[in-house]
Design a protein that fits this description.
about 140 residues; single chain; mainly alpha
């Protein structure tokens, strides 16, 4: 059951944390693409942000597995660090080359920031699901 929650946490963290940071970058004219992109992606034609959130959900499982026992500051810094490094490395080393996208220093730093925020979002979501939204 906890792994399903970790998937949900990664999915929700993508929608709330990851895309909010993308939105801040977009509002600051640092990136050309707006957040919460609803353009369909192949092969299923689902909205891009939902596809991205699905992958965020899958990433949520190993991230939670790594940080689940850490306490206090180590838990939150670990969530940011693990969230930043893993998904960014895969994006820059695998996904971007497959899509023919350039990798440069700005994209790497931006990816680390966006995915680090996502990692914190995974930890926040898991905490909320453990305690219940009402803090029970």
């Amino acid at each position: 059951m906890v792994w399903i929650k970790a998937f949900i946490a990664g999915f929700v963290a993508t929608l709330l944390f990851h895309q909010s940071v993308i939105g801040l970058f977009w509002l600051a004219d640092m990136i050309p693409s707006a957040p919460w992109n609803l353009s369909p992606v192949s092969p299923l034609g689902i909205p891009s942000v939902i596809s991205l959130s699905f992958w965020g959900g899958l990433w949520g499982v190993p991230v939670w597995w790594l940080i689940r026992r850490w306490q206090g500051v180590a838990h939150w810094l670990g969530a940011a660090l693990v969230g930043a490094v893993g998904p960014t490395a895969v994006a820059m080393l695998v996904v971007f080359p497959l899509k023919g996208l350039d990798v440069d220093g700005a994209r790497i730093v931006g990816g680390l920031i966006v995915n680090g925020a996502w990692g914190v979002g995974v930890a926040c979501s898991m905490r909320l699901m453990r305690q219940g939204v009402a803090g029970r």
